UniProtKB/TrEMBL annotation:
One of its GO terms (cellular component) is cytoplasm. Its EC number is 2.1.1.77. PANTHER family: PROTEIN-L-ISOASPARTATE O-METHYLTRANSFERASE, PROTEIN-L-ISOASPARTATE(D-ASPARTATE) O-METHYLTRANSFERASE. It comes from Arenimonas oryziterrae DSM 21050 = YC6267. The active site is at S76. Signal peptide: none annotated. GO terms for molecular function: protein-L-isoaspartate (D-aspartate) O-methyltransferase activity. The gene is pcm. HAMAP family: PIMT (MF_00090). This is Protein-L-isoaspartate O-methyltransferase. Residues 1-24 are annotated as: Disordered. InterPro entries: PCMT (IPR000682), SAM-dependent_MTases_sf (IPR029063). SUPFAM superfamilies: S-adenosyl-L-methionine-dependent methyltransferases.
């Protein structure tokens, strides 16, 4: 697949933020991270993650680590983004997806790069403003909302997929109500130190719940700022 995003000449080929750095990250996600879905790997290969973090940290953009994005929040680790995206696409062919916790915008941008229609909700206005600018600069078309996303975005539901990128003690019922039949929801659920990444699917046989392993996310917080 040809990269969709063309970097400005002065930033292309600049060591730590180059296409090569991204290629190496993707090779590691495949060989060490066990990520198999080529659609996901190719989206991560084409999307410049360094544009989703502060310039001062850009040289670390292709390390497999979460990084601070301000307001006490973090951009998720590439492996977590890849794994969650893969898990979301594994069953069915989702078209419309809701993300709770826009943050840097990277996870949402990965989903949009995969051709999904993305709705994303963020409670911190400042982060959302910066994420919106990134989407615009990359020519990505996501629908964004400044709100407490714990109750989803009912006006636009049902969604084929829902991805929650902050951890709550439980999942709100109204979020499950916004999941379409056949749809998949992925969310970290648990305490503040560590959580279980849960996948819930609405199948013909009823609700199927799986534990995809332990993860660490920033907390899902109520109210907006
Ligand atoms: N998907 C993001 C991850 C950011 S961290 C990325 O790729 O960068 C999680 C984000 O969830 C934070 O920005 C945090 O402010 C946001 N968040 C926490 N609670 C929320 C809530 N109730 N509604 C919406 N966003 C929330």
């Amino acid at each position: 697949m040809t990269p969709r995003f063309h970097l400005k000449p002065e930033s292309a080929g600049q060591g730590m933020t180059s296409q090569r750095a991204r290629d190496r990250m993707v090779d590691r996600l495949r060989s060490e991270g066990g990520i198999r879905d080529e659609r996901v790997l190719s989206a991560l290969r084409s999307l410049p993650r360094h544009l989703f973090i502060d310039e001062a940290l850009a040289s670390r953009a292709y390390e497999d680590t979460a990084l601070p994005i301000g307001n006490g929040q973090t951009i998720s680790q590439p492996w977590v983004v890849a794994r969650m995206t893969e898990a979301l696409l594994e069953h069915g062919a989702p078209k419309k997806v809701l993300e709770i916790g826009t943050g840097s915008g990277y996870q949402g941008a990965v989903l949009a790069t995969l051709g999904l229609e993305v709705y994303t909700v963020e409670r911190i206005e400042e982060l959302l403003r910066i994420a919106r600018r990134r989407f615009r600069n990359l020519g990505l078309n996501l629908r964004t909302k400044h709100d407490d996303g714990r109750l989803g975005w009912p006006e636009h539901g049902p969604f084929d997929a829902i991805i929650v990128t902050a951890a709550g003690a439980h999942l709100d019922r109204s979020l499950m109500d916004q999941l379409a039949d056949g749809g998949t929801l992925i969310a970290p659920v648990g305490g503040s130190a560590t959580q279980k990444l849960l996948r819930k699917r609405k199948t013909d046989q009823g609700l199927v719940e799986e534990d995809l392993g332990n993860v660490v996310f920033v907390p899902l917080v109520s109210g907006i700022i």
